[in-house]
Every structure is written in structure tokens, then in C-alpha cells.
Amino acid sequence: MRLKYPNCRILCSKIDFKSAFRRMHLAWKTALRCCTLLPDEDLALIFTRLTFGGKACPSEWGCLSEIVCDLTNAIISDEDWDPETLFNQQSLELPAPEFLDDDVPIAEARELVFDLPVDDKGCSDVFIDDLFAACVDLPESDNIKRLERAPLLAIDAVARPLLESEPVPRHEMAARNKFIAEAGAEELKIVLGWKLNFRALKMYLPENKFIAWAADFQQMIDSKRAESKKLESCIGRMVHVSQILPQ
What is the pTM for the complete model shown? Predict the structure, then answer.
């Protein structure tokens, strides 16, 4: 996006699916294959929905979440869609877009070794239960409005809007407890555990993670010992951070 539009702002939004795995039910034959036996208690636990510990569950949930993502991309790029007239009512609760100060310089993008298609209206991607989208703030365009409203409209199409009086209580598919804090369009956005700066084209470890992880490292150094699980966790964290170190 920055290569094609070097002087334009890039904004990002993110929506979390509410209790994602609990929304996908298992066929009874599959549920029987996934039961857990407790011999000492003479019990067998049968799960009728995806579990958060099941190895196959992320890919099974992806069958649904990737459909929502594909539909989001189709809606964003649809010339006939008017985001001012067809939208999810929840999108009216979104906070206003947040921009960095105008005096913050726009970083120059580096040339890529291959060409990537760029949709002038924006695009979306998904990782398990995180649906995020980005767009270029082009003059005289409704790109930001498309960015904000297309994901929620796609979710509505798959999960349907809630009635005022549902016969069985159910939550909206978009996680409301994270909605106001994370769903708005911003130039700074935390995505998949990284703080992304779309103006500077940089990524950072969020401050709360830096403080917590640094404290754990220091505690191990001071005590000169660590439990195996904590050591494995710290190794994983170092590998995580190493992904953004310059080559």
C-alpha cells in the first residue's frame, strides 16, 4: 500500500470473535470420537462444541472465520456497496478514526522482491478469532468507512443480527468487551501481540508485555534458577521477539 501511495495514511481495524470455538457445534459422531474418559470416576465427558485445547479446533474454526474474511474482502471491494446505507447497527458505536499528528513523517516503503496486488479500497485477513483489515486513506474516498463497516456486515451475513428478544440468549459474534477499544480505525494498532505503526512502518513489543517479560527475565537472573516451564516460556518469548530483529 505504501509503495503505491507513498504520501497517504494507512489505517487498521481489528475485531475479535466472541467465544469463537463455542459457536461451532460438533456432529454427534465427531463428539463421540473426542470424548475424554475419567476411569477413576467412571465418567466420560463428551464435548458438543469445539474445545480450546483440541489440536484440530483452530483449523476447524478457520473453515468459518476464513469465509467471513473472504466475504469482508468481497464487500470492501464491491463498487455497488454503499457503506452509508447498508451496514451493521453495531458499527454506529465505533469510535472515531484516530490519526497521528500531521508533523509525524510518513516512512518510505522498500521495494519488494515480488509484486503484491493492492486493492485501492483495502483488504482483510484473519488469524483464528482475530479479524483485521487495513486501507489507504485516499482523498475523496470512503475507504475508512468501508474498513470500519465491511467486517461487521460480513459477520452479520454469517451469524445474523440479533433480535430484540431472542428465544435463547446469545451474544453478538463481535466481542463487545473489546469492540470499543480495538475495532476503530487507527494508524497504531495492536495485532496478534505486536504494536504496529502504519505511519512509520514499524512494529514493537507492547509496553505491558515488555514490562512483564523483562521482570521475569530479571527474576531468573537474580535467583540463578528457574522452573522448567518458566524457562520454556522465556525461551519462547525470546524467539517471539527475535522475529523483528534486523537481519
Answer: 0.82
